[in-house]
Design brief:
Keywords: Acyltransferase, Lipid A biosynthesis, Lipid biosynthesis, Lipid metabolism, Repeat, Transferase. It comes from Pontiella sulfatireligans. GO terms for molecular function: N-acyltransferase activity; UDP-3-O-[(3R)-3-hydroxyacyl]-glucosamine N-acyltransferase activity. Helices cover 15% and strands 28% of the residues. The chain is of the alpha/beta class. The protein folds into three domains: 3-87, Udp-n-acetylmuramoylalanyl-d-glutamate--2,6- Diaminopimelate Ligase, Chain: A, domain 1, CATH 3.40.1390; 97-309, Hexapeptide repeat proteins (UDP N-Acetylglucosamine Acyltransferase, domain 1, 3 Solenoid); 315-341. A twelve-stranded mixed sheet has the order 6-9-12-15-18-23-26-29-32-35-37-38. The model has no long low-confidence stretch (mean pLDDT 96).
Length: 342
């Protein structure tokens, strides 16, 4: 694809030859001749002058030197995502129908265009909407309902009574609807399992990464709101509610009966205790340990979690402790000397 075609599609401004042939996309560091790259994070600005890419997509106000052609756009990150789609070779979509090795219960209802992959099991009472793909080695439990145009990658398990909306994507190895972690403590200290009779509800347009665990409710529903995006290796406990369009990054975890508002961000390895309320648009920083409610639009970090400005001051003060220790030692020596002279 000629660079001029890319510029025209993006509606950008070109600096350099319009006849450059672009054959692939790549990062600034690994790009070579024929590749187009991009700059969105100022941290990598110096690489624009040394990259071997044939062209780089940059913000419109970019004012530094470059070693290649530049494509100026309003949003370089979004523009590069568009370009990447043009060069992506999408694998063939699984064919509609049931693979001979799959096991589908007689009472299961499959919509038009549904694909059931090899060795998958579809239990009694399941309803799967039109054009949904159940990949190889998946398990869809009793009376699970899956909406149209959804896609379950290999090795996904959905336990009984799970409800999954339309256009939901669930990646490899995720388990939806496993029992919540609930036990009653007996007088002798032993623990007796509490029956988990609720379900998991996943609303429309949710994407769930690989190896995520979403527990069924003790009673009622564990709910993942519309448009939520969940990264790999996330734990969501029983009766948790994740608000619409909230993002949960890798290895974050939420304990039972906590409610996360809409359009929140839980950064990597953030951990939330149970029975909390997190307000809309809140941000929980990486590795934060949240022990109490988080107000709407708050930004907390640290363990225990605190407002991010308070955390920054604490860290800054901690860095000065060695110097303060030396100063105190000096003052102690001076006091001791004065006492000896007295």
């Amino acid at each position: 694809m000629k660079l001029s075609e890319i510029v025209e599609k993006l509606g950008g401004a070109l600096e350099g030859s319009a006849d450059i042939e672009i054959s692939a996309v790549a990062g600034l560091g690994e790009a070579g001749a024929g590749d187009i790259s991009f700059l969105a994070n100022p941290k990598y600005a110096a690489q624009v002058s040394s990259t071997k890419a044939s062209a780089v997509i940059v913000p419109g106000d970019w004012g530094r030197e470059a070693s290649c052609a530049l494509v100026r756009v309003e949003n370089s990150d979004q523009a590069f995502a568009e370009v990447a789609e043009w060069f992506y070779e999408e694998p063939p979509r699984p064919k509609a129908g049931v693979h001979p090795s799959a096991v589908v219960a007689e009472s299961a209802q499959l919509g038009e265009g549904v694909s059931i992959g090899a060795n998958s099991t579809i239990e009694e009472g399941v309803v799967i909407g039109a054009n949904t793909v159940i990949s190889a080695n998946c398990y869809v439990g009793y009376k699970t309902v899956i909406g149209e145009d959804s896609f379950l990658y290999p090795l996904v398990s959905t336990r009984e009574f799970t409800e999954i909306g339309r256009r939901v994507i669930i990646h490899n190895g995720t388990v939806v609807g496993s029992d919540g972690f609930g036990y009653a403590v007996q007088e002798d200290g032993s623990r007796t399992k509490i029956l988990q009779i609720g379900k998991v509800v996943i609303e429309d347009d949710v994407e769930i990464g690989a190896n995520v665990a979403i527990d069924r409710a003790r009673f009622g529903k564990t709910r993942i709101g519309k448009g939520a995006k969940i990264d790999n290796l996330v734990q969501i406990a029983h009766n948790v509610v994740i608000g619409e369009h909230t993002v949960m990054c890798g290895q974050s975890g939420v304990s039972g009966s906590t409610t996360i508002g809409s359009r929140c961000i839980l950064a990597g390895q953030a951990g939330l205790a149970g029975h909390l309320q997190v307000g809309d648009h809140a941000i929980v920083g990486a590795q934060a340990g949240v022990m109490k409610d988080v107000p709407e639009r708050a930004f907390v970090i640290g363990s225990p979690a605190m407002p991010h400005l308070q955390f920054k001051k604490m860290v800054a003060n901690t860095i000065t402790l060695p110097r303060l220790k030396d100063k105190i030692k000096q003052l102690e020596d001076e006091v001791a000397l004065l006492r000896r002279k007295a």
